[in-house]
Amino acid sequence: MGLVYAEIELINGGDLELARRNMLDPEDIKKMSVEMIVDSGSNYMCINETVKEQLDLSVIEKRKGQLANGQIVEYDVVGTIEVKFKNRRCHVDAMVLPGDSEMLLGAIPMEDMDVLIHPLKQELVVNPEHPYYVQLKMKGVRKIK
């Protein structure tokens, strides 16, 4: 299977909250559509410095991550970002990659939005078992009788 890309909308979560409190005009919410590599082998979401600046996201902390070649690097983590794909959304923090690096949509936001990589079409799709709503896996949680 080759690389899978998806068009993802990113929205500044702080702006959303200010708009909900009527402290920011909804038209002033910073958002943008970006193309991201869909990478189920990566846990986290990664954006680049250009997107961080355009969305005016705040640095929350620094975290270390292990690259595919085994190298361990430290990056800024920003948030909160609302991530939208088709009829799905979630809120995540993201690691900031240098410059205009390609961005990654990892397994955590994919699970949270209940989306999958379709291997034949090589594209990101809404889970066909629940096309109209998100259904999360809650293993280990048992209903008390």
Provide a descriptive summary of the structure in words.
It contains three helices and nine strands. The strands form two sheets. Strands 1, 2, 3, 4, 5, 6 and 7 form a seven-stranded mixed beta sheet that branches. A two-stranded antiparallel sheet has the order 8-9. The chain has 145 residues and is of the alpha+beta class. The chain has helices spanning 13-20, 49-55, 107-113, and strands at 5-12, 31-38, 46-48, 58-66, 72-85, 88-97, 104-105, 115-118, 123-126. It has a single domain (5-126), classed as Beta Barrel (Cathepsin D, subunit A, domain 1), CATH 2.40.70.10. A hairpin with a 5-residue loop joins strand 4 and strand 5.
Domain tally: 1
Classified by CATH, the class is Mainly Beta
Which fold does the CATH topology refer to? Answer: Cathepsin D, subunit A, domain 1
**Broad structural category:** alpha+beta
Radius of gyration: 16 Å
Which shape, going by the Cα principal axes? Answer: globular
- The total of helices stands at 3
Helical content (DSSP H or I, runs of 4+): 10-25%
Number of strands: 9
Sheet-strand content, in percent, reads: 35-45%
Q: How does the major sheet shape up?
A: 7 strands, mixed
At CATH's second level, what is the architecture? Beta Barrel
What is the mean predicted local confidence, pLDDT? 94
Query: Which spans of ≥5 residues are poorly predicted at pLDDT below 50?
Result: none
Listing every helix as H and every strand as E from the N terminus to the C terminus, the arrangement reads EHEEHEEEEHEE
Query: What is the CA-CA span between the terminal residues?
Result: 45 Å
- CATH evolutionary superfamily: Acid Proteases
